[in-house]
Design a protein that fits this description.
Elements lengths: L7 E4 L1 H13 L23 H16 L7 H9 L17 E2 H21 L2 H15 L28 E6 L2 E4 L8 H12 L2 H14 L11 H18 L2 H17 L19 H18 L2 H18 L16 E2 L12 H14 L3 E3 L2 E4 L5 E5 L4 E7 L6 E8 L5 E6 L5 E7 L2 E2 L3 E3 L2 E6 L6 E7 L2 E5 L11 E5 L2 E5 L13 E4 L2 E4 L2 E5 L8 H6 L2 E2 L4
Parallel strand pairs: 2-4, 7-11
Antiparallel strand pairs: 1-8, 3-4, 5-23, 6-7, 8-9, 9-10, 10-16, 11-15, 12-13, 12-16, 14-15, 17-18, 18-19, 19-22, 20-21, 21-22
Length: about 550
């Protein structure tokens, strides 16, 4: 990754509202000490998973949103007080029946403990990470080359629960899950643990896992998209540590396959590659983070554009009125609705939604070679302590194309800035203290330089078009279907018979919504502000002829 300086960012506006609702949900009974990770409050067969995701979620939100969790320390201590004699959760690993769900679950526990240790410096967390690595994962060296990746070797349990379940099938010494390939989810937790521990044996184990992972035909094996994407994030971590271009190239390949064989038309995910059943915000968050990481590493703006579409139409759509996150259908027939069985995946997606919200809050600006880059528009406070620079950003994006920056502190030389303004944006205008100033366009950015001081305001504005967008996945290729977008926002209508709308006759109603022949077309991303019963019954057409 290029040399960058990241600021302290405190979200405001829409992102803050979503983060606060999620933070509040994570204080309900399911996520408290004495509940999280106990039998009856954990996904059966996933030791370390529920409690690890809870620790991860609360730690990240508290850090990125400047919040104080009520029971985080107590939750960590409760979890660490209930381990087996080797320092990990659940039953002891059996050499002839390696439980891939236990590895996946403990990856989330490692992630949670890593973030908790980095935030609070508690030695108990560090010691717990080291014991899990030493006693659960390092004994698996030499085992990964036998992990069954041929579909002929394993049954596909397409009717597995949203939480995933052990199938009872043992192949090559591996006890398999309906979340196909979930063992490789642990690449993420192991990679972050390596960042802390720097144990050579752990690096060797990760290399062995990656060697097997890159041999998988993800579609042919019907691998779980969440597992593949999380594993890919682990590869990107290792690519940063070892400058591994090979790893990055493979993640680009995985993401390309995902876009065609694992993504819905509203930029959410199929639970399994090539097998649309329901979406899973855990995987949607993964896809958003990967898109942002690939853009940061390669500079290819295709990934940045995909990240914006995934965020607004996939991640935001998945948030529920109670602040949690839940599953939708896969838009196989052009219709979008909440999955009735998995309306909120409170055992996993509600916690992973927190990581998405934290990532969005963390990466909203950075300095690179003395240029201040704003890769997406989101209201909040931006403060670079090293440069004595503080900005307050206020924006109505993605509904509108307006962003204003108030300089609250600065006494330095002229600043060069690059502010996100989508490639489809038109009628771009830039003003400093009300007076127009010059700028240039660089792909999806507006660049300018100006001498700034405290009290200055600069304002970027551009037009948000109503536009037609062709389908993006193989599932709907060559069917003559398209989506209607307000800028980056996919629109849906409850008028299911509105199959051939004429956008030239659309009347704008405000807030990104339109009316056409009595049918209302509105962004799908504000589902979390709906009445719960209304959201559960809402069926939206998002594909049209």
């Amino acid at each position: 990754m290029r040399n960058r300086i990241y600021p302290q960012i405190v979200p405001k506006g829409e992102l803050a509202a979503r983060g606060l609702k999620n933070f509040a949900r994570l204080h309900d009974r399911w996520y408290r000490p004495g509940i999280a990770g106990y039998p009856g409050a954990e996904s059966p067969g996933w030791p370390g998973d529920w409690e690890g995701r809870s620790i991860l979620a609360l730690t990240l939100l508290s850090s990125k949103y400047r919040l104080v969790p009520a029971y985080l320390d107590e939750l960590v201590m409760d979890v660490l007080s209930r381990r087996n004699e080797f320092g990990y959760r659940g039953e002891l690993m059996r050499p002839g029946a390696i439980n891939e769900q236990s590895l996946s679950g403990h990856s989330w526990l490692l992630r949670g403990l890593c973030e908790y240790y980095m935030a609070y410096g508690k030695k108990e967390a560090y010691e717990a990470i080291a014991r899990i690595i030493e006693n659960l994962f390092l004994p698996l060296r030499g085992k990964w080359k036998s992990y069954p990746i041929d579909k002929k070797e394993r049954e596909h349990f397409a009717d597995g629960k949203a939480a995933g379940e052990l199938t009872g099938q043992i192949v090559n010494g591996w006890l398999l899950s309906s979340d196909t390939g979930c063992a490789f989810m642990s690449l993420d937790g192991l990679a972050q643990s390596y960042e802390l521990l720097r144990i050579p044996e752990l690096a060797a184990l990760i290399g062995e896992m990656i060697a097997r992972y890159i041999e998988i035909d993800y579609v042919a094996m019907t691998m779980q998209t969440h597992a593949a994407l999380t594993a890919s994030r682990g590869m990107l971590r290792m690519a940063e540590i070892f400058d591994g271009d090979k790893y990055c190239e493979h993640v680009k390949k995985v993401f390309q396959i995902y876009q065609k064989k694992g993504m819905t038309e509203n930029y959410a995910n199929y639970n399994w590659f090539g097998d649309p059943k329901w979406t899973e915000p855990c995987g949607i968050v993964d896809s958003y983070m990967i898109a942002m990481q690939l853009w940061e590493k390669t500079g290819d703006e295709h990934y940045l554009q995909q990240a914006q579409l995934i965020w607004h139409n996939g991640v935001e759509r998945g948030q529920r009125p109670n602040g949690g996150f839940g599953c939708d259908n896969s838009v196989t027939e052009g219709m979008l609705h909440a999955d009735q069985n998995f309306y909120e995946a409170y055992w996993c997606c509600t916690m992973r939604g927190a990581e998405g919200l934290s990532c969005r809050a963390e990466n909203g600006a950075y300095l690179e070679e003395e240029t201040l880059v704003v890769p997406y528009l989101s209201s909040g406070m931006i403060r670079f302590e090293q440069k004595a620079l503080a900005l307050c950003e206020t924006t109505d994006y993605p509904i509108g194309g307006n962003a204003e920056f108030l300089v609250e502190e600065y006494h330095g030389p002229p600043i060069s800035m690059k502010i996100y303004s989508p490639s489809w944006a038109s009628d771009i205008r830039l003003a400093l203290n009300g007076d127009p100033i010059g700028f240039s366009r660089e792909g999806s950015f507006t660049r300018f330089s100006a001498k700034l001081k405290a009290g200055d305001r600069f304002r970027l504005s551009f037009a948000i078009p109503l536009r037609i967008s062709q389908t993006v996945t193989d599932l709907h290729a060559e069917k003559g279907l398209h989506r209607i977008l307000h800028g980056d926002l996919v629109l849906g209508t409850e008028e299911t018979k509105a199959e051939n709308p004429d956008i030239s006759s659309f009347a704008y109603l405000g807030n990104g919504a339109y009316e056409w022949e009595g049918a209302r077309f509105a962004p799908i991303n504000m589902a979390y502000l709906c009445d719960e019963q209304k959201l559960k019954s809402m069926d939206l057409r998002i594909l049209f002829r």
